[in-house]
Design brief:
single chain; 5-stranded parallel β-sheet
């Protein structure tokens, strides 16, 4: 069990079971006190952020995601939300992520910096809602295009951009997993902050 300090600066572990859980679950959902979460790196067995993990943590600005290998699907109200919906996070560094789940960008706009290990995306990874499209930017540093878990990539109303290594650009737009997104894929050298 986790507890937030009174000033919101740190997280105190009261009880950390040995049940093999590798996901943060919803332990911090709707916690409006937490501002930074550097401590996630201490839990080396926790490698997944999914569902509504940080949903409505309205003061959260940074999360240390060095151990995270999977960003799961958001699930609030059925349509899906990013696990980071209603936070103040503007940039996510994910150096070790291998899997991106569905709806990770719904109602959450940020710069996602993906390392060199991305292996799979889901059918609706880059999907946004029709009434609330977001302009997230994805900087994907993986040379080989990640495979698609199932279905066909859907970008419904996605208005952001996906930047890939220059030398891999042709491979990405030719890949069956990524070709539906080719109008949004650009060379990394074209990215400006």
């Amino acid at each position: 069990m986790f507890k937030l300090s009174k000033d919101g600066d740190c997280i105190v572990v009261l009880e950390f079971g040995t049940d093999g859980a590798n996901s943060i679950g919803t332990k911090f959902k709707e916690n409006t006190l937490i501002r930074t979460f550097r401590e996630l790196s201490w839990f080396t067995s926790m490698n997944s952020i999914g569902g509504d993990a940080f949903y409505n943590c309205t003061n959260l600005e940074t999360v240390n995601t060095v151990n995270i290998t999977s960003i799961g699907s958001g699930s609030a109200s059925g349509e899906g939300y990013s696990p980071f919906h209603r936070t103040k996070i503007t940039r996510l560094e994910l150096p070790n992520v291998t899997t991106l789940g569905n709806y990770i960008g719904i109602r959450f706009s940020a710069v996602w910096v993906i390392g060199t290990k991305l292996a799979s995306i889901n059918q609706y990874t880059f999907r946004t809602s029709s009434y609330n499209p977001r302009n997230s930017t994805y900087l994907i540093n993986t040379e080989n295009p990640a495979s698609l878990v199932s279905g066909t990539s859907s970008m419904n109303n996605f208005q952001g951009h996906i930047y890939v290594p220059d030398e891999s650009y042709d491979a990405y737009i030719a890949s069956s997993a990524w070709s539906p997104l080719k109008s949004r894929i650009k060379r990394m050298s074209e990215y400006t902050e």
